[in-house]
Specification:
The complex is a heterotrimer of chains A (327), B (341) and C (501). Chain A is mainly α and 327 residues long. Chain A has helices at 3-9, 11-30, 38-62, 71-87, 93-118, 122-141, 151-158, 166-184, 186-196, 198-203, 208-233, 245-255, 267-286, 292-318; strands at residues 160-161, 164-165. Chain A has a domain at 39-243. In chain A, helix 4 runs antiparallel to helix 5 (93-118), helix 4 packs across helix 11 and helix 12 (245-255) crosses helix 13. Chain C folds into three domains: 1-80 and 159-240, Rossmann fold (3-Layer(aba) Sandwich), CATH 3.40.50.300; 89-158, no CATH class; 260-500, Rossmann fold (3-Layer(aba) Sandwich), CATH 3.40.50.300. Chain C is built from 18 helices and 22 strands. The chains are: A mainly alpha (327), B mainly alpha (341), C alpha/beta (501).
């Protein structure tokens, strides 16, 4: 593939990368280099790990043309499960994390099963499960903050190689695996085929129901991974965990070039978009602006990216309607 | 034979079923615990909340009628309430003038949303989601920057009357209104009547529903679909604004928290009432019944001393169950009608 | 062993219509078999039964010795049957090679074996002599290229039986020549090919045997094509009912002002200097092959796409039509769409509400309230006039049969009482009796003074009801004929116009 066609396919990702680099350099320059200190870099990367994973969790359901409103609630419940098991029931770390992870996986699977069985819109199904899960989350943590779990876990959260924390490496590794799953494995390709053209997929012997189920289950697994990182990077778990995940889970993949209609994924785009959002956050702190500015900016950016990509798509589609000039 | 068919047809009306379930649950909770029938502590606040939430439901219903969603109902309510609160605190507006400011703000937000949807052709889900993001930032910023207590607290004359007065204070020939009905139900009734009238009787309502049923066919039938999409969002924004102002009145102050709990109930009411998510069919009265049902469950459980967590679980289950039932019913009717032709 | 597909006494009914009635067909390896029939004759239903999309109500299907109907498309594929659909059945974001191997991607431990995939795809592509980069994404291909990809896909599944559903509908002549070479090549290798097409010339070029369906019945069963002349085939397709029908030549006064006139119109979609005129009370047939730009011209006139040059005159006055609402309310032009389910009807609305959707402005009381009595009155009037079979006006449009649905979408526009009506493919998927009634209706409406543009790909239909025929090809008008309603001579002239272009 030559450079030109590479750029054509990867337009969004290339421009996001450019924005990220320029934005980063601008922040370095205006902070007189403070951002390059190991401490600043480490905090920059630490708070990048979770947005990447929850962005992925949304991306995999968007890939089949579905959505998952319950990402936040699923994350809240699974991290609460982990915390409660380790703090109150003295589970060893691995067992607590494993059960919590599996619970998230199961929640995803239930979402998938409900969507497939009832044939209802994923939006309304996950709205319902979200409500139920918020109830469970509250029941698990009440108004407390659970922090009586082994400190070795939060120690792990602060460990890093140079300025790059382990937990970011985990996020990136998961992203790479996910990318391989969607580009290389038969299962991943079938899921994408369902999103791209369900009718054609069915005629080629692909079970669309299975693809939808897999996508939701995978979403659950990614939320589980995000919960593990959450519990490792925070000093305690309370009922606010996951409360602000839903909006940002959509922001990263959509800015990164994933279509709501399904059939596309953009792992790198989602990662770099999460990076750009993180930069906005840093900029906000640097200029001591109110945190509300971040969500305002992200909202405006999401709107303009989708609008732009839609205009571009319509431009190219217009060439398809109308006369075909044959060579 | 005829009677049974009549009964089946009445029972297949979702509104009747909803009313029966709501009434049954109401009696059940009351018989289990007499405290549930307390006018002052349970029923009056329940109906006051129901009034606001029904209006939120109607705001969502307007978006659903054309097959769109409005995820920003809550935040539109917040911005409108903020505008109203600002006009009371800094401009010294009278009560009705302030309400008008709130409604106009909501209408403008809706118009902006609709305009973006039409111009960009982007899914309304994403547009309203992004709108929600943007407005959340905006509202918080304004309250934090311009108010000392993160709220507008000035109460115009007459606000307490709307908050606390019940129909019991109104007597005609010695017969007084029931104590459980708050004044707040009047804006709800007006909204219900207007929205119901529009969708049920008028050309505008029909055109909105036709647009929701089949956008391309509507366009080719000469209906100005772009304008109708914007109209639906304007109604949605205005009603969200009204709900925001109503909640501000109930709370006695205007803060950023207004509307943050609106999103889920906004869907519960219309969907339980029988409004389609795909557009083309609305249930205006059903929205009120759906809202009442959810609030009776909520209040009933909390009177039993059951906590917030179980309420959520119950509400989520009710939503999923109601939807699955609707789906099953649809499957049956389609089999029946296939058999007939 | 020669490949063989046998269809015996297959029947299939849908609500309100017997789509297939005891149909027989024998398809043998090494031959190209034409499946002919008018729109709605049952061709696509038969294909869907062969490929396991529909279940037949009765009859038998034998493929390679096994006797059973296929439960699902994938089962048909496993039995060596592949179909190249009219609709594009490819995944747009996937590469050519991946689409070709989609049925059965080469895997090693669940991982896609990319080099094997490329090899398989290249092999299939070279078999049909199609030179394309297997890594190219399908969304960047032309329609003809996509069709070739589908054929390559069929080869990879080792299909012994390939069904081609209108493969030349939207490709150019050069591409058709290329496609035919490939079909002959496959046939010489022993593949059985079922070729579905409207274009009889093409059928005579490439096919060996022929089956003709009419009104759901096989009126000619697997006979050598060489034994029949083109006229005989046409007679079999349309049946005696059309041939016997009274031919009515209508007198049109073309001395006055045309109801609509186009002068050198160019559109944003690529129409070149289109000029035409439509006189009051006239039926102007607009004939052309699929992709000739007829519906697109109609939609440009109605303001859905931009007119970039030239002028439109209505009764002599130049007008700018901004959108459909403008066309309907100000200029009194209606448009019955081709695609009634997607663009014509509101399926979850009642028949009455569908009919009133174009005339809401006329049935209002104060405050914009719809007058239900007037609405019902008008609905009943047109239900009666068109003979729509319904229980009452409140019946939902989705519960009607195809023919009745089409009548509702016409009723909607008749209710609007327009001066000009553009009717796009009115009888697709409608049974023969309803079709004849439609033809009568269209002429009656014209008798009453309505000016009608009839867009149709159904040549007998165009010839049966038009007063004049305008022939389009590749987004341009290639000729205009006074219609003598003499099928053999007119159809020849039309074909000559299309091919000389």
């Amino acid at each position: 593939m030559n450079l030109k066609s590479f750029l054509r396919h990867r337009m969004t990702e290339a421009s996001l990368t450019l924005i990220f680099i320029l934005g980063f350099l601008a922040l370095v320059a205006t902070s007189q280099g403070v951002l390059l200190s190991e401490e600043s870099l480490q905090s920059f990367f630490t708070y990048l790990a979770i947005p990447i994973l929850i962005g992925m969790a949304q991306m995999v359901v968007l890939a089949v043309g579905q959505m998952n409103l319950a990402v936040g609630a699923m994350g809240g419940v699974s991290s609460a499960v982990m915390a409660v098991l380790m703090a109150d029931h003295k589970f060893p770390i691995w067992a607590g994390l494993l059960v919590g992870f599996l619970s998230a996986l199961a929640m995803g699977a239930i979402n998938g099963a409900l969507v497939v069985v009832t044939q209802l819109n994923g939006f309304i199904i996950t709205l319902g499960t979200m409500t139920i899960l918020l109830g469970f989350q509250y029941r698990l943590v009440r108004t407390f903050t659970i922090d009586q779990y082994p400190t070795s876990l939060s120690d792990f959260g602060t460990k890093s190689i140079g300025p790059v924390p382990y937990i970011l490496l985990i996020s990136l590794a998961v992203s790479v695996l996910l990318s391989l799953y969607f580009t290389r494995t038969g299962s991943g390709r079938r899921v994408l085929a369902t999103g791209g053209n369900p009718l054609a997929a069915r005629l080629s012997g692909i079970s669309n129901a299975r693809s939808v189920f897999i996508a939701h289950t995978l979403s659950g697994a990614l939320v589980g991974a995000a919960s593990i990182i959450t519990i490792a990077s925070l000093s305690g778990i309370n009922r606010s965990i996951g409360g602000d995940w839903m909006l940002s889970s959509f922001a990263a993949p959509i800015i990164g070039g994933v279509l709501m209609a399904g059939g596309t994924i953009a792992v790198y785009g989602t990662v770099i978009a999460a990076g750009v959002i993180r930069l906005v956050d840093i900029a906000r702190a640097q200029y001591s602006l109110d945190p509300s500015i971040v969500s305002f900016t992200v909202g405006v950016v999401v709107l303009s990216t989708v609008a732009l990509s839609e205009w571009r798509r319509r431009g190219s589609e217009r060439q398809h309607v109308g006369r075909k000039v044959s060579a | 034979m005829k009677l049974t068919r009549k009964i089946t047809s009445i029972l297949s009306d979702q509104r009747v079923v909803l009313s029966i379930i709501t009434l049954a649950l109401f009696l059940f909770f009351g018989l289990k615990n007499k405290a549930f029938f307390s006018a002052d502590f349970v029923l009056f606040p329940l109906l006051r909340d129901a009034a606001t939430i029904t209006v939120v439901g109607l705001a969502q219903l307007c978006a659903l009628s054309i097959g769109h969603l409005n995820l920003a109902v809550g935040r539109m309510a917040a911005v409108s309430a903020m505008a109203t609160g600002y006009s009371y605190q800094y401009l010294g507006f009278s009560l009705p003038l302030g309400v008008l400011v709130g409604l106009i703000t909501g209408a403008l937000l809706g118009a902006l949303t609709g305009w973006i949807v039409v111009k960009s052709q982007v899914n309304a889900f994403i547009v309203t989601l992004a709108m929600d993001f943007a407005l959340l930032g905006f509202v918080t910023f304004i309250y934090v920057t311009f108010t000392p207590a993160a709220a507008f607290t000035t109460k115009p004359a007459g606000m307490d009357f709307w908050r606390n007065t019940s129909l019991a204070q109104y007597c005609i020939a010695g017969v007084c209104g029931p104590k459980i009905f708050p004044m707040m139900i009047f804006p709800m009734i007006v909204a219900l009547l207007l929205v119901g009238f529009m969708y049920g009787k008028t050309r505008l309502g029909r055109e909105l529903l036709l647009t929701g049923s089949n956008l391309r066919a509507a366009k080719l039938s000469g209906i100005p679909v772009d304008r109708r999409v914007i109209t639906a969002h304007i109604f949605s924004g205005t009603l969200a604004g009204l709900a925001g102002v109503m909640l501000g009145f109930t709370n006695g102050s205007f803060s950023a928290a207004i509307g943050s709990e609106f999103m889920l109930p906004s869907f519960l009411g219309p969907v339980l009432g029988g409004t389609l998510l795909t557009g083309g069919s609305v249930a205006v009265f059903g929205t009120m019944m759906g809202t009442l049902l959810t609030l009776v469950i909520r209040q009933g459980l909390s009177v039993q001393g059951i906590g917030l967590e179980t309420l959520n679980i119950a509400l989520g289950l009710v939503l999923l169950l109601a939807l699955s039932l609707g789906q099953i019913q649809k499957m049956f009717t389609s089999i029946r009608s296939r058999g007939r032709t | 062993m020669t490949t063989e597909l046998l269809i015996e006494q297959v029947s299939k009914a849908f609500p309100g219509v017997q789509a297939l009635n005891n149909v027989n067909l024998t398809l043998t390896g090494g031959t190209v078999h034409a499946l002919l029939g008018e729109n709605g004759a049952g061709k696509s239903t038969l294909i869907k039964i062969i490929t396991g999309v529909y279940r037949a109500d009765s009859g038998a299907l034998k493929a390679n010795g096994q006797e059973h109907f296929f439960e699902s498309p994938i089962e048909a594929t496993r039995a060596g049957i592949a179909v190249v659909h009219q609709e594009r059945n490819l995944i747009p974001d996937f590469s050519v090679e991946e689409n070709i191997t989609l049925h059965n991607p080469p895997l090693k431990y669940g991982i896609v074996d990319r080099s094997e995939r490329t090899r398989l795809a290249k092999q299939a592509l070279s078999t049909i002599g199609f030179d394309i980069d297997p890594k190219e994404r399908v969304k960047n291909l032309s329609v003809a290229q996509m069709q070739l990809v589908e054929i390559a896909k069929a080869l990879v599944t080792k299909a012994q039986i390939i069904l081609l559903d209108e493969p030349t509908a939207s490709i150019t002549n050069t591409e058709t020549v290329k496609l035919f070479e490939i079909i002959k090549l496959l046939s010489s290798q022993g593949t059985a090919i079922l070729f579905v097409s409207h274009k009889l010339e093409e059928v005579y070029q490439i096919c060996d045997t022929v089956t003709v369906l009419r009104d759901g019945e096989s009126v000619l069963e697997s006979k050598p094509l060489a034994d029949y002349k083109q006229d005989e085939i046409v007679d079999l397709m349309v049946g005696r009912h059309l041939a016997d029908r009274k031919i009515r030549i209508r007198d049109i006064d073309r001395t006055g002002q045309p109801a609509m006139e186009l002068k050198d119109v160019r559109t944003a979609l690529g129409h070149e200097t289109i000029s035409m005129s439509l006189y009051p009370g006239e039926v102007l047939g607009m004939y052309g092959l699929v992709g000739a730009g007829r519906s697109e011209l109609a939609r440009s006139i109605l303001g859905l796409y931009a007119i970039t040059q030239g002028e439109i005159l209505l009764s002599g006055k130049e007008v700018k039509i901004k959108n459909m609402g403008d066309a309907l309310h100000r200029h009194r032009i209606g448009y019955v769409t081709e695609n009634r389910k997607e663009e014509g009807l509101f399926l979850d609305f009642s028949v009455g509400q569908n009919i009133s959707s174009t005339i809401l402005a006329r049935i209002l009381d104060k405050l914009g309230v719809i007058n239900r009595d007037k609405e019902a009155e008008i609905a009943t009037k047109f239900v009666d006039r068109l003979g729509i079979k319904i229980v009452d006006n409140h019946q939902l449009a989705e519960t009607l049969s195809g023919g009745n649905q089409q009548k509702v979408s016409v009723a909607k526009w008749l209710a609007a009482e327009t001066n000009i009506l553009i009717i796009d493919e009115p009888t697709v998927g409608v049974d023969v009796r309803t079709k004849a009634a439609f033809h009568e209706l269209i002429m009656e409406l014209a008798d009453e003074g309505l000016s009608i543009i009839l867009i149709s790909s159904d040549l007998p239909e165009v010839i049966a009801i038009s007063d004049r025929i305008m022939v389009m090809n590749d987004y341009a008008v290639v000729g205009e004929l006074e219609n003598t309603k003499d099928y053999p001579s007119i159809s020849r002239s039309i074909m000559a116009l299309i091919h000389s272009a």
